[in-house]
């Protein structure tokens, strides 16, 4: 009885311990990523002069070029960030340059989940599900549901006004489900600003999604133009992580 009890207690402790798993972490360095993507004049560099925590951060830049017709990614990628059925937390710090021009408003993506569907369908290739971005100084996110051949995108306004030149913290929790058994939450600087239950959070096709952070100046490509007068854009990132508990992803806790 005593042995059985302590065995059960031991198993319970083990279960609790193994449930908290940090699956990925990066302290603002260019090492350890599945891949690093820079398009056209974009750059991803490890810096020590502007950091969110510790001694290093990642600086992502993009430069508009009216004679270039391609996309503008400056991102770091980590594979296998989710599959259907996973319930995980993702976190990072970011800082827009202090002179970030937000008027006139145009969208700049900061983080995204994306999968390569080219092997299983001709409807799409690399398809992002949830993205996190600013338009002007407002923060948005979204859910992508349905199927790759019939995508439904639901934009979510966070109500957050982002202050350029300051480090900000984002933590996302998602239960990734293609039916309405999922949920999605987003914390900004420690305050929960999005909380949706009983929602689909991804498409029906189950392939592993990457988690990416970085500056992706997607509006320059999508809108075939740059608005405003700031063709050189800089965003810093630091303390990028994901895992099974809030503490695994929260930059303040690991
Ligand atoms: C939703 O899908 C999951 C598989 O990811 C399944 O286990 C669950 O029973 C489904 N729920 C509903 C309400 O259909």
UniProtKB/TrEMBL annotation:
Pfam families in alphabetical order = Polysacc_lyase
* The UniProt record lists the keyword Signal: yes
Q: Any coiled-coil ranges, and where?
A: none
In which domain of life is the source organism classified? Eukaryota
Keywords, ordered alphabetically: Lyase, Signal
Q: Does the keyword Manganese apply?
A: no
The signal peptide annotation in the UniProt record is 1-20
InterPro entries per record: ConA-like_dom_sf, Polysacc_lyase
Q: Name one GO molecular function term.
A: lyase activity
Record protein name field: Polysaccharide lyase
The scientific name of the source species is Cercophora scortea
């Amino acid at each position: 009885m005593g042995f059985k009890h302590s065995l059960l207690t031991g198993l319970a402790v083990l279960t609790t311990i193994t449930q908290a798993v940090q699956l990925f972490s990066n302290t603002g360095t260019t090492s350890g990523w599945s891949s690093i993507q820079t398009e056209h004049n974009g750059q991803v560099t490890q810096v020590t002069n502007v950091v969110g925590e510790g001694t290093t951060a990642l600086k992502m830049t993009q430069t508009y070029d009216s004679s270039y017709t391609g996309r503008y990614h400056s991102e770091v990628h980590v594979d296998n960030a989710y599959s259907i059925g996973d319930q995980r937390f993702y976190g990072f710090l970011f800082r827009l340059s202090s002179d970030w021009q937000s008027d006139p408003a145009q969208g700049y993506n900061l983080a995204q989940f994306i999968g390569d569907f080219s092997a299983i369908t001709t409807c799409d290739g690399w398809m992002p599900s949830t993205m996190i971005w600013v338009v002007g100084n407002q923060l948005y996110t979204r859910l992508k549901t349905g199927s790759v051949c019939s995508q439904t995108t639901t934009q979510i306004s966070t109500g957050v006004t982002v202050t350029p030149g300051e480090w900000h913290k984002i933590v996302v929790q998602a239960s990734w489900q293609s039916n309405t058994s999922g949920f999605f939450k987003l914390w900004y600087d420690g305050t929960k600003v999005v909380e949706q239950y009983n929602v689909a959070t991804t498409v029906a096709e189950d392939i592993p999604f990457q988690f990416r952070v970085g500056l992706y100046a997607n509006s320059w490509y999508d809108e075939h133009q740059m608005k405003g007068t700031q063709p050189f854009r800089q965003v810093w990132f630091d303390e990028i992580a994901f895992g099974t508990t809030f503490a695994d992803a929260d930059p303040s806790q690991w």
